[in-house]
Amino acid sequence: MTYEPKNLRVVGTRPIRHDGADKVTGRANYASDFTLPGMLWGRVLRSPHAHTRVISINTDKARALPGVKAVITGADLTLPPPGITQAGESAINTQHLAKNLLARDKVFYDGHPVAAVAAISEAIAQQALGLIEVVYEVLPHVIDVDEAMRDDAPLLHDDLFTEGVEPKPEKPSNIAKRIFVGKGDIAKGFAEADIVIERSFTTKAVHQGYIEPQGVVANYAEDGQAMVWCSSQGQFLIRDLCITMLGMEASSLKVIPAEIGGGFGGKTTVYLEPLALMLSKAAGRPVKLTMTRGEVLRATGPHSGSSMTAKIGAMKDGTITTAEVVIKFQAGAFPGSPVGAAVMFCSAPYDIPNLSITGYDVVVNIPKIHAYRAPGAPNGAFAFETVLDELARELKMDPIDFRAKNSAVEGSKSPYGPTHGPIGGIECLSSAKNHPHYKANLGPNQGRGVASGFWINIGGQSAATVVVNRDGTISLVEGCPDIGGTRASLAMMCAEVLGIVAEKVRPSIVDTTAIAFNDVTGGSRVTFATGIAVVQATEDAVRQMRERAAKMWDIEVDQVGWRDGAAQELNGNRSLTISQIAQKAAKTGGQIMGHASINAHGAGPSLTTHLCDVEVDRETGKITILRYTTFQDAGKAVHPSYVEGQMQGGAAQGIGWALNEEYIHDAQGRLENAGFLDYRMPVASDLPMIDAVIIEVPNPNHPFGVRGVGEAPIVPPLAAIANAIYDATGVRMRDLPFSPPKVLAALEAAGKAKANG
Amino acid sequence: MAKSHVSTTVNGDPVEFLCDAPETMLDVLRNTLGLTGTKEGCGTGDCGACSIIVDGRVVCGCLMLAVEATGKQVTTIEGIGAPDRLHPVQQAFLEDAALQCGFCTPGFIVAAKALLDRNPDPSETEIRYWLAGNLCRCTGYDKIVRAVQHAAAEMKGQPA
Ligand code: FES
Ligand code: FES
Question: Per-residue pLDDT averaged across A711-728, rounded?
Fold first, then answer.
């Protein structure tokens, strides 16, 4: 479908979301709000060691405890055939997934599940865990990415040989893969440059931090039919992963999507669902399994810590001639970090003729890394955008002008291959430059930082059904969990096409037996791709209603138009409303239902620029965010409040990542801060208002011009804050997070260097 | 170990339940009384998803033993607003798009209502510090703070 400018009456307005009342009254049901009669409670036994061989597991005493109904270990989970399941932006290796669900001969991280129990109460299940006897042989572990790449590092997998290097290595290592993106001739590019700056950066593993812990209720019946109720970013993905793990047929498993309490990419895989199904099958009763916050932090996908070097050259006039970047990512226990996105997108806001960007995917003893909002891009942008700031200062150029001079525009070839269509990079930069924030006065110890970001966005498979009810209301049936207001945005697009108000369209997100396969809610794809499916399904319903009207009037269908929620006779003044047509549906051919099932392409990339003002407390090293403004190309904001919400929320996550969040391990490789007290995410008193300025450069591949918006806003904050700290203090911070002790140490070191210099 | 018998008042109704000594008020609300609007995000007092009002004070349900409810007045999210009219805080959350996933929302609404009950005219800073015990990972708090300001203005405009 292509974009056409239209007069819009619903798209672009701010109606109350359809699921709103349920969510402000406590009615909305999330994963662990569900209960079944006869339900058992499950608990998972987790390894207390970071890297061990499992010598033996004895479950006899646990099984003998009264009230225990089932105990499972890795021996009960048959290794599935090798395969890959696509999960939004990540790909899931099915054998690795099985080994992650329940350890087999080896444990790869603190928190790795080794057994699970179902019992008549949570307390008995917990007691049973203590009766399971596991004999471990503790092995040396490695967590830091640079250390894991060394020849003498403890080896996680003795069958892992680096992909992407020629010739194939003779020895296994922790380096799962090398990837490369390049063009032009970097030697020539550096020779042309008047100034070259090379810097190194590190970041720590961080967690998605959704407030709802994972939870599931599973019910496996004697005839092999099963049901799972859980919160995820895609009920179809959960179904497909579960049936692959358990060797079931797709039609035998109904996955019912609960409301989801945040995901940010982290809920695009399974941790508990297959275990709950196995326990339910073994016990013959429904089983509820939930994670504590400690389990969430210890055992679910954090995002990669990284180590990076960026070397960028520019000419005196500000033209960037070349960039050479090396990016190493923690993959966690199994290969598959999002380093590819860091490689492809770190330089993507710009058009740079000579590029060499290399990435390494490195296994280490922390949980298998999983997607986190614009997976990988913030790390790469942190390095790239910080070096750009240094270059702009050396060149005595305004950092916005410097970026604008090198911006990718329509027709530029992206680093990852395709040529850009219309993109809003320049528009974001000029809007930032003209914003009052950019001119606001700064006091002592205050500074301003600028950074840009890029996210590609994805399309993918979506289905929608538009059911026309007798009273003229619409039931909109779709299959993508609503995490941030997509029920509203989809219903609004349906209403726009019909010419009715959004409140007359009631959206429902249905289970895996009630609609065709849908890809996950992820990759910023729902308002784009499911939006196209909804528009097509609605147009299908309109076509049928025009046909019925033609029948009722006994004229040709091409004599019937559609306007304002009614069929209109083109050469006359008769009209029929939706309800008038629907009430006669039985007589004119049966009930009216529009369908669409598509694989959408052409999600336009999102570009964004952030402005950040900080104040640095020289006594304590504490950074206060004084002002924060985000500028982002949304293509078309269907419900502007929820677009702003994505921009503000993404910025806040990036601020937390920059200032405080990090995985801290003890000498044994155990996670030391497995709770919200010590894994310190931003709270309301840490932040100012976050101003969100929506730019609209329509995406030509969507009927209303929509681009995904959810991910790009987490990309710039790391560098924007680093650049602001430099502006305030003259000190460059290149190792995340910028927590008070680190800032204080950097200020003191700089003070000493100055005194000695 | 014998269970304890507790008599209390939840959302204005007399309620009795049996609980084990270590059970929290959050466990009892969710698992015994079926009031699942109160959420568990951490179980350690660090996220505020379990916020309830006990005798006029905001409390983390996960840090309160269920036996402590004896003789107390407990208000949960299910007790806020009336069937024919949402509470102004709830209404403002809807109008101002102050929720995305909605998981933190019951806790924020409970805490914000308690704030406005004691301070009808809080400053932005007072709102931010009052709500600092409630984590939201989706919104960046901007629209939540605005919704509380909006609700405060609505409530002042309304004759009691
Ligand atoms: S669940 Fe009680 S504060 Fe988090
Ligand atoms: S709206 Fe999702 S945590 Fe607040």
Answer: 98
Rounded distance from Cα A626 to ligand 2 centre (Å)? 23
Structural domain tally of chain A? 3
Shared domain check, A360 and A290: no
Over its C-alpha atoms, chain B yields an Rg (Å, rounded) of 16
Question: What is residue B2's predicted lDDT score, i.e. its pLDDT?
Answer: 87
Q: Is residue A320 part of a domain?
A: yes
- Ligand 1 pocket member B133 (CB < 6 A): no
The per-residue pLDDT for range A243-258, each reduced to its tens digit, is 999 999 999 999 999 9
Q: Which atom of ligand 1 is nearest to the CA of B133?
A: 3
Give the confidence band of A756 by pLDDT, cuts at 50, 70, 90: confident
* H or E segment to which residue B75 belongs: strand B73-75
pLDDT for B159 beyond 50: no
Rounded to the nearest angstrom, the gap between the alpha carbon of residue A722 and the centroid of all alpha carbons in its chain is 23
Q: Is A259 on the interface with B (CB under 8 A)?
A: yes
What's residue A484's pLDDT?
Answer: 87
Q: CB–CB of A484/B101 below 8 Å?
A: yes
B10-36 confidence digits (pLDDT tens):
999 999 999 999 999 999 999 999 999
Judge whether A192 lies within some domain.
Answer: no
Kindly report the nearest CA distance between residue B19 and chain A, in angstroms: 12
The arrangement of strands across the sheet holding A133-138 comes to A106-107, A52-58, A133-138
Same domain flag for A684 and A723? yes
One domain for residues A240 and A125: yes
Please say whether the beta carbons of A600 and A576 come within 8 A: no
Q: How far is residue A147's CA from residue A128's CA, in Å, rounded to a whole number?
A: 38
The model's confidence at residue A517, banded by pLDDT at 50, 70 and 90, is very high
Domain membership of residue A363 (yes or no) is yes
Can you tell me the mean pLDDT for B70-98?
A: 97
Average pLDDT, chain A: 97
* A513 and A640 housed in the same domain: no
Establish if A24 belongs to a structural domain. no
Residue A31 CA to residue A325 CA, distance in Å, equals 42
Q: The domain spanning residue A488 has which CATH number? A: 3.30.365.10
Say whether A532 sits in a helix, a strand or coil. Answer: helix
Mutate to test the interface with B, among A23, A34, A638 (most CBs of B within 10 A): A23
Query: Which among A566, A600, A634 is the end of a domain?
Result: A600
Contact flag B100-A264 (C-beta cutoff 8 Å): no
Burial (CB count <10 Å: 0-12, 13-18, 19+), residue A353: middle
Q: Which of A548, A582, A600 is the last residue of a domain?
A: A600
Taking alpha carbons only, the member of A542, A524, A564 closest to residue A706 is A524
- Rounded mean pLDDT, A483-507: 97
- What are chain B's domains? 4-79 (3.10.20.30), 88-155 (1.10.150.120)
Q: Are residues A715 and A658 part of one domain? A: yes
- Is A751 found in the same domain as A728? yes
Residue A58 belongs to domain with CATH number: 3.90.1170.50
Q: According to the model, what pLDDT value does residue A237 have?
A: 97
Q: Which of residues 37-66 of B touch A (CB under 8 A)?
A: 37-44, 46-47, 49
User: What pLDDT is recorded for position B160?
Assistant: 41
With CA atoms as reference, the chain B residue closest to A232 would be B101
* Other CB atoms within 10 Å distance of the CB of residue A546: 20
Mean pLDDT, rounded, for A511-516: 97
A311 close to A397: Cβ distance less than 8 angstroms: no
Q: What percent of chain A has pLDDT over 70?
A: 100
Up-side HSE of residue B137: CA atoms within 13 Å toward CB? 27
DSSP string, A387-403: HHHHHHHHTT--HHHHH
Q: Are residues A342 and A474 in the same domain?
A: no
Domain that holds residue A522: 459-600
Do A217 and A88 have their domain in common? yes
